[in-house]
Specification:
Distance between the termini: 9 Å
Strand content: 5-15%
Number of helices: 7
Shape: globular
Number of strands: 5
Largest sheet: 5 strands, parallel
Structural class: alpha/beta
Order of helices and strands: EHEHHEHHEHEH
Oligomer: single chain
Length: about 170
Amino acid sequence: MIQICFHGAESTGKSVLADKLARALGVPWVPEYGRAYCEARGTDLTMADLLAIAEGQQAAIDAASASDPPLLLLDTDQLMTAAWAEMLFGEVPDALLAYPKADRYLLFSADVPWVEDGTRLFGQTAQRARFADLAEAVLQRAGVKWQRIGGTWPEREAQVRAALTDLT
């Protein structure tokens, strides 16, 4: 099984594209557990919340992996939770870096318009740029394979489709 993780700052198209491509390709995808968590509990997060989100995300990944699909799309994983920890609290607990890693990370650039959805926090230009930089730094720190996805919505979709074709 090949796991591809969509990674990057808020409002860069990860969730929409993961859902769309999973349906188009007939493969499973794992939604962002943190979104459901924040919708239920609010966005005033503590480090304990981030650790709980990481556990919930892993449980969802494990459940989707149980059927051993040839390809599994992850809307996010614990490396993005690590970026959140750095952004919110200025530190990354080792536990967030210890989770299993995807085979490839697609880093979505913050070069498309911001869309507020009620759970997003960093819509100001400077905040968004900092969060995007932290998301990239986490990938570098973890030493995982990744590639950048950017441009217009159609360009992003084409880039992700090409990446998936190359990896499968």
